[in-house]
Write a structure and sequence with these properties.
seven-stranded parallel beta sheet; Aldehyde Dehydrogenase, Chain A, domain 1; Aldehyde Dehydrogenase, Chain A, domain 2; 14 helices
């Protein structure tokens, strides 16, 4: 076994013990520990910002993209947001022990499906140091132990946040191994986590396409993931111009580096404000890459690859379409099943869009930037899942539980 393999095996064994403790902790204890952890993050702000400044300087020197640097950057507001996110998780309803369903069989057996923790969650992530706190808090509140492996570009920030988080959790009554951070940045540690069947119960990757593709290709552990956020906004023929302008500009430009950002704009060919909307988006600082009809208006011609690109930048692909069938065909061909939105005043068209688009999140008259666990009232999220099994969309506490059948009888035998 390699050094990385031995390290992950040891962490996994300790996490398994911690998970057994966490699974039986009452809600009040878990919530108090998370509030203590949030206070510890607030108190550690100077150390966290100092560590982040060093990461930012190294990232700039190493040529990290603007989108990656935006994800990496912390300031006082973002650190307070991290602490507040942990507090928000502490205030959420605890799913553990909750009943999914109950029934009484004709033979008198009482059956219940009861939510229980998954066990040990491995989270592999890049850039965003806030994931250290978000993922750790969510896993712990749902009764799971967490093994975190952050990217090398955020190593100092992750260590500072993790140290504060664990100090608070321990002070609040949780085991020290409830949330562990892999102490090395060697990529072999990722491989060891992916092979840790029996020690890690679920892997959640948060990062670029290459990371997630590797995880899905190599993992012997179940994976909860999405590859891309190739999100669409469709402006229908019945859309209000002012609403469409606000939504499209926000969806693309509020934060270009988040997975909920719009990457492709589809506009009904017969809508009378096509040119005005394109001009407004371009004037706001977005580069447009369009189909033949859009490029004929003076914008850059899109290449075939553009329709399948998650830009994470102030760039958008734009196409004019003839109606909902064209929209569905385009999203089916190029979308990533993350988030897609329609802007329209026609309720029938909107409901048809919501029913026919097979994405984890579908929206009507709202910016795709709302694709976020906090905005959905879930507290922090551990990620957005775009598959069809177990959990879909923002994954928070409930998505980090499974269930078991509990059967209560009075001496029944099958005979």
């Amino acid at each position: 076994m390699t050094d990385a393999g031995r390290l992950i095996a040891d962490m996994g064994a300790r996490a398994r013990i911690a998970a057994g403790v966490l699974a039986t902790l009452p809600t009040v204890t878990k919530a108090a520990a998370l509030r203590a952890a949030a206070d510890a993050v607030d108190a550690a702000m100077p150390a966290i910002l100092e560590a982040n400044a060093a990461d930012m300087a190294a990232g700039a020197a190493n040529g990290l993209s603007g989108a990656m640097l935006d994800r990496l950057r912390l300031d006082e507001g973002r650190v307070r947001g991290i602490a507040d996110g942990v507090r928000a998780v502490a205030g959420l309803d605890d799913p553990v022990g909750g009943s999914v369903s109950e029934s009484l069989r004709p033979n008198g057996l009482r059956l219940a499906r009861v939510r229980v923790p998954i066990g040990v969650i491995g989270i592999i992530y890049e850039s965003r140091p806030n994931v250290t706190a978000d993922a750790g808090a969510l896993a712990a509140m749902a009764g799971n132990a967490a093994i975190l492996r952050g990217g090398s570009e955020a190593a100092r920030s992750n260590r500072a946040i993790h140290a504060a988080l664990v100090a608070g959790l321990v002070a609040g009554g949780m085991p020290a191994d409830a949330v562990q951070l892999v102490p090395i940045t060697d990529r072999a540690a990722v491989g060891a986590m992916l092979q840790a069947d029996g020690l890690i119960d679920l892997i959640v990757p948060r990062g670029g396409k290459s990371l997630v593709a590797r995880v899905q290709a190599e993992a012997r552990v179940p994976v909860l993931a999405h590859l891309d956020g190739i999100n669409h906004v469709y402006v229908d023929a019945a859309a209000d111009f002012d609403m469409a302008r606000r939504i499209v500009i926000d969806a693309k430009l509020r934060r270009t580096g988040v997975c909920g950002a719009m990457e492709t704009l589809l506009i009904h060919r017969g809508w009378p404000h096509v040119e005005a909307l394109l001009r407004a988006l371009a004037d706001a600082g977005c580069e447009l890459r369009g189909d033949a009809a859009v490029s004929a208006l003076g914008y850059t011609a899109a290449q075939a690859a553009d329709w399948d690109t998650e830009y994470l930048d102030a760039i958008a692909s734009v196409a004019l379409v003839d109606g909902l069938d064209d929209v569905i065909a385009h999203i089916d061909a190029h979308g990533s099943h993350h988030t897609d939105a329609i802007v329209t005043g026609d309720a029938a068209t909107a409901e048809a869009f919501l029913a026919r688009v097979d994405s984890a999140i579908v929206m009507w008259n709202a910016s795709t930037q709302f694709a976020d666990g906090g905005e959905f009232g879930l507290g922090a999220e551990i990620g957005i899942a775009t598959g069809r099994l177990h959990a879909r969309g923002p994954v928070a506490l409930e998505g980090l539980t499974t269930y078991k059948w509990v059967v209560r009888g009075a001496g029944q035998v099958r005979g």
